[in-house]
Amino acid sequence: MSVWTDLSTGPFTLAFVDVDGVPTRSLRAGPQSSAAPPVLFLHGTSSHLEVFAPNVRAFADAGFAVHAVDMLGHGYTGKPGHDLEVPHYVEHVRRYLDAVGAGRVHLVGESLGGWVAAWFAGVHPDRVASLQLVSSGGTRAVPEIMARIRSTTERAVYEDDPAFTHERLARLFHDPDRLAADLVEARYRIYHTPEFRAVLPHLLCMQDMTVRRRNLLTAERLALIGAPTQIFWGRFNPMGDVSEAEGIHAGIAGSRLVVFEQCGHFPQLEYPERFNAEAVEFIESVVGRT
């Protein structure tokens, strides 16, 4: 498997967008016109835009203006010298949309990206046409999971053995054989830049209980979300069982929950064809009724 296989069948651009002085790595595909509904992909903690490489082409071929970015402090995007909490990511997303001239956007967020997307939808409802949350974080603070995120990420970043990067990713798959070797290589290279090693403590601040609690997606915050919402979850998601998804589903009025049975934390990577079909269909249904 290769995360770039689907992208290779059509045109795309990979460039840096100046977001109020923050160079932001952005992959774009599909028609980049005012008539094409924009879709923005947001990744998870210590991740990068490549985790959506198998999905971009399907959305572009459906006629959407696709954007996948390295979030603030992540990947090759600029790295502020301070702790990054959810409002920082939300503001960076808003400024990115302004920089590329996107008004209302269809948000697809995975893990931390889902957390940020849900928060964004609550505070900027006029900017969100639809919301899709993929194994979204943000509603629980479980010490064991938080400690595991910190320890596995620190080991992968601070140790030079690529096996630790592979382990960091493979444990998130129900079937590790579905993990593409070039995704591991892309992450290893990012992890071992001096800039990423320096910023890591600022990214992992969300694994501190005090910090996490003040950033949680409370019932009140979920209730603010008025955009059409679809939630994807893997039955064997090691970051949280299906009851967490059910809680998000119950908290967002009118939302739809889709559970992938033989799947871990990455429905979009383990079952890209099914994910792409259902995610594109959902946005098309929203576009069709607006």
Automatic annotation (TrEMBL):
- UniProt cross-references to Gene3D superfamilies, sorted A to Z: alpha/beta hydrolase
EC annotation from Swiss-Prot or TrEMBL: 3.7.1.14
Domain (AB hydrolase-1): give its ranges. 37-270
What GO biological process term is on the record, naming one? acylglycerol catabolic process
- Domain of life of the source: Bacteria
GO annotation, cellular component aspect? membrane
Q: Which InterPro entries match?
A: AB_hydrolase_1, AB_hydrolase_fold, AB_hydrolase_sf, Epox_hydrolase-like
Q: Give the record's keywords alphabetically.
A: Hydrolase
SUPFAM superfamilies in the cross-refs: alpha/beta-Hydrolases
List GO molecular-function terms, semicolon-separated.
monoacylglycerol lipase activity
Output the PANTHER family linked to this UniProt entry.
MONOACYLGLYCEROL LIPASE, MONOACYLGLYCEROL LIPASE ABHD6
Q: What is this protein called?
A: 2-hydroxy-6-oxonona-2,4-dienedioate hydrolase
